Amino acid sequence: MQELFLEMEIKMKDGVDHLHEELKTLRTGRASTALLDGVTVEYYGTPTPLNQLASLSVADATLLVAQPFDPTQIAAIERAILVADLGLNPSNDGRIVRIPVPPLTEERRKEMVKRAHEIAERFRNAVRGVRREGNDRLKRMEKAKEISQDDERRGFDEMQRLHDHYIGLVNQALSNKEKDILEV
After folding, report:
1. Residues of each domain in the chain carrying CATH 3.30.1360.40
2. Which of 65, 24, 19, 22 lies closest to 181, judged by CA?
3. Bridge partners of residue 91, in order along the sequence
4. Lower CB count within 10 Å: N or C terminus of the chain?
5. Where do the CATH 1.10.132.20 domains begin and end in the chain?
6. Cα–Cα distance between 24 and 44 in angstroms, integer?
7. Domain spanning 2-25+105-182: which CATH class is it, in words?
8. Is 157's pLDDT higher than 80?
9. Is there a contact between 166 and 15 (Cβ–Cβ < 8 Å)?
10. Are 11 and 17 a contacting pair, CB within 8 Å?
11. CA–CA distance, 26 with 9 (Å, rounded to integer)
12. Can you tell me the distance from the alpha carbon of 143 to that of 127, in angstroms, rounded to the nearest whole number?
């Protein structure tokens, strides 16, 4: 039974880790290289992630800098950032691409918060699904007489405890991101 709890906890933890990764891509008022994680550049006919074609850095709170490894790709990088529809307008000086990050409007902040809530809800549902899977396996174990009814009941309680813990982590990550987005 312990290995069942361990397996379910690992699945829930993976879900929370993925949530953190997804929330990183949402734009806050500050510049972050994570904003460009989803940008792909046509590199000799192959869609390639921007971070494989250029060194990305944060110059200051409102400016990102992309320094291409291959300077001939500056125009393609600039075009890819524009096409990504992130609300960013890159410019280049022939060697590097400067990407000013404008402050978010109130309307855009509300959209970002709404998107964060949608992402969090998707991960809450994933945690609930893992709990359901664990409970179903406990029921099958009890039916097959591998565990007693008392053990099954304790298993349900432990599964609920794990669920509550990881739902709390999802809610905490959401509230932190919401605070970041709404911070002016």
Report:
1. 33-100
2. 24
3. 98
4. C
5. 2-25+105-182
6. 29
7. mainly alpha
8. yes
9. yes
10. no
11. 26
12. 24
Report the Cα 60 to chain-centroid distance in Å.
23
Give the pLDDT confidence of 15-58 residue by residue, as tens digits: 999 999 889 888 777 788 888 888 999 999 999 999 999 999 99
Encoded tokens for 96: 């590097």
The per-residue b/e assignment along 89-100, b for 16 or more CB within 10 angstroms, e otherwise, is: ebebeeebbebe
Tokens at residue 95, please?
Answer: 């060697």
**Could you tell me if 66 and 36 are in contact, meaning their C-beta atoms sit under 8 angstroms apart?**
yes
Sign of the alpha-carbon torsion through 145, 149, 151, 155: positive
CA 183 to each of CA 28, 104, 105: distance values in angstroms, whole numbers, following the listed order = 8, 10, 11
Q: What is the topology classification, in CATH, of domain 33-100?
A: Gyrase A; domain 2 (3.30.1360)
Alpha-carbon span 116 to 122, nearest angstrom: 10
pTM over 0.85: no
What is residue 184's predicted lDDT score, i.e. its pLDDT? Answer: 65
Q: How far is CA 26 from CA 33, 35, 101, 184, in A?
A: 11, 7, 13, 15
